[in-house]
Specification:
- This protein is mainly beta and 147 residues long.
- It has one domain.
- The protein has 2 helices and 10 strands; from the N terminus they run αβββββαβββββ.
- Strands 1, 2, 3, 4, 5, 6, 9 and 10 form an 8-stranded antiparallel β-sheet that branches. It has a two-stranded antiparallel ribbon with strand order 7-8.
């Protein structure tokens, strides 16, 4: 029960905050933060495949089955990977976006996120990124574009 409460509070803080820096940690020169994301194409009002929103802008969109929470990992000011818990995804999202061997970005994503006062530019080019399935969720590795 305490874990469910913690996740709920984290969700509310992430969606309500003006800066995205909730639950930040540093592990071996990798900084992580948990924030809201929208799955879809930024240019198509979050329809299609990819990431349309990362961070506090999530509260400005209304795409119920495409909004979730992710743990982002940064290395030297760039996004390295993203973990999304299976329990935070709808069955539609799992089937549509996480059933293959890669995560597709139909459009690139550019944005900035603030983690513990540090600004990180997020630049994810269009393409396919390795998707690793774990028992508890999915990891997308943004440091290796596949195609």
């Amino acid at each position: 029960m305490p874990m469910v409460y913690y996740i709920l509070v984290l969700c509310l803080l992430t969606l309500a905050g003006s800066e995205t820096h909730v639950n930040s940690m540093v592990y071996d020169n990798v900084e992580t933060t948990t924030t809201g994301i929208g799955i879809g194409r930024k240019k198509k009002n979050c329809q299609g495949k990819g990431l349309c929103v990362i961070g506090s802008d999530i509260k400005s969109i209304t795409i119920e089955d495409r909004i979730t929470i992710a743990r982002l990992s940064f290395d030297k000011e760039s996004l390295r990977s993203m973990f999304i818990a299976r329990s935070d995804l709808s069955d539609f999202a799992v089937k549509e976006f996480f059933s293959g061997k890669s995560f597709e970005m139909e459009d690139g994503y550019n944005g900035t996120i603030i983690v513990k006062g540090n600004h990180y530019d997020i630049d994810i080019p269009k393409g396919y990124y390795p998707l690793y399935k774990q028992k508890t969720g999915f990891v997308i590795k943004f440091d290796s574009l596949q195609r």
